[in-house]
Amino acid sequence: MVIKSYLDNKGSQHPKFKYNLPGKQWTENFVKRNKHLLTKRHCQNIKRKRAEKTDEEIEAYFENLKKTIENIQPEFILNYDERNLSDDPGSKKCIFARGTKYPEMDINFIKSAISIMFAVTAVGTLMPLYVVYKSDRIYDQWVIGGPPGTIYNRTKSGWFDGPTFQDWFSKVIIPWARSSPEPKIIIGDNLLSHLNVEVIRACQRYNIKFVFLPPNATYITQPLDVSFFHPLKVTWRKILREIKLKHPKENCVEKAKFPGMLARLLKDIKSNEKTNLRSGFRATGIYPLNPDEVLPDAGFKKEFQAKLIPPFSAS
C-alpha cells in the first residue's frame, strides 16, 4: 500500500503492478533487498485510543520530563504501576492426534485476580510489594510466607482506591523518600483515585514530584510495562499451571497459598530482574533521558528512507 500510494502520488503506472499494487512476491523480495533496515515482526493488537496517540503528545511529555528529571540521580527516579495476577494459567501447546477439533486441558480456573502495586527505580531496585485482596477482611494465613517486606490490604473490589493508594504511599514511598533530602520523581498513570491532599502534602514534605504518563501510551512509556511485566506474567502462568495440575480439584488459587506462590515468582525472575528493570527505563527514554527511544526524530526517518534500496530495482 505504501508503494501504491507512492506511485499514485507521482501520477505514474507501473506496468507489472495491477492498479499500482505490488504482489506478495515483489513485497518479499523488497524486504530481502532491504534486510539491513527491514524485518518481519508480529505486531501486538492495541486499542484505537492507543493508535491515535500523536507525536506532539509524546513530545510534550518528554519536554515536561526533561525539566523535571534534570540533575536527579537514577536511584531517586521511580516508576509504579498496579498489576493483576489472575487465576487463569492461559493456553499451552500440546500434542494431539491429527484431526482433533477441540483440544482441551482439564484445569479448573475462575476469572478472579489479585492486585499488586509494583514500584521500581532506574537503578533496578524493586521496592516492597503491596498486595490487595478482594475481601471484607484479611485473615492471618493470607499474609504468611510472602516475599520479605510485602504489605497486605483488602478492598471490596480487589482494586486500589484512594485509601489503599495513600496507605501504599505512606508505607512504601515515604520510607524510600526519607532516606535522602535529594529531589525525587515518581512516574505513573494519571488516575484521580490515586491522588488526595495527604499524598500531595507528603510529596511537598519529602521533595517528591509526580510525572504523569500520557494516557493510553504506557505500553511504550512505562518501564514496568515495557520490560518487566511480560516475563513476570509468563513465569506466573508456569507456576500457576504446576499448582493446578497438582491440585486439580481446586477451583482457584487459595489466598493462604498466594504469598508462597508470590515469593516463588520473585525468586524465579530474580536472575534477570535488575537487568530487565534497567532496560525498561532505557527503552522508554527516561534514563538516560532519550526521547528517540520512543519517538525517532524526523532526521532519523529521512536517513532511514534514504538508505532503502530503490523499490523498482531488479528482483
Task: Describe this entry's structure for a reader.
The chain has about 325 residues and is α/β, with parallel strands linked by helices. It folds into 2 domains: about 1-45, no CATH class; about 70-90 and about 105-295, Nucleotidyltransferase, domain 5 (2-Layer Sandwich), CATH 3.30.420.10. It is about 40% helix and about 10% strand. The chain contains 10 helices and 6 strands, in the order ααααββββαβαβαααα. It has helices at about 1-10, 25-35, 50, 55-70, 160-180, 195-205, 220, 225-245, 260-285, 300-305, and strands at about 75-85, 115-120, 130-135, 150-155, 185-190, 210. Strands 4-3-2-1-5-6 form a 6-stranded mixed beta sheet, sandwiched between helices. Strand 2 (about 115-120) and strand 3 (about 130-135) form a beta hairpin. Helix 8 (about 225-245) runs antiparallel to helix 9. The longest helix has 26 residues, at about 260-285. The radius of gyration is 24 Å and the shape is flat. The protein starts with a helix and ends in an 8-residue tail after the last helix. Mean pLDDT is about 85; it is low at about 300.
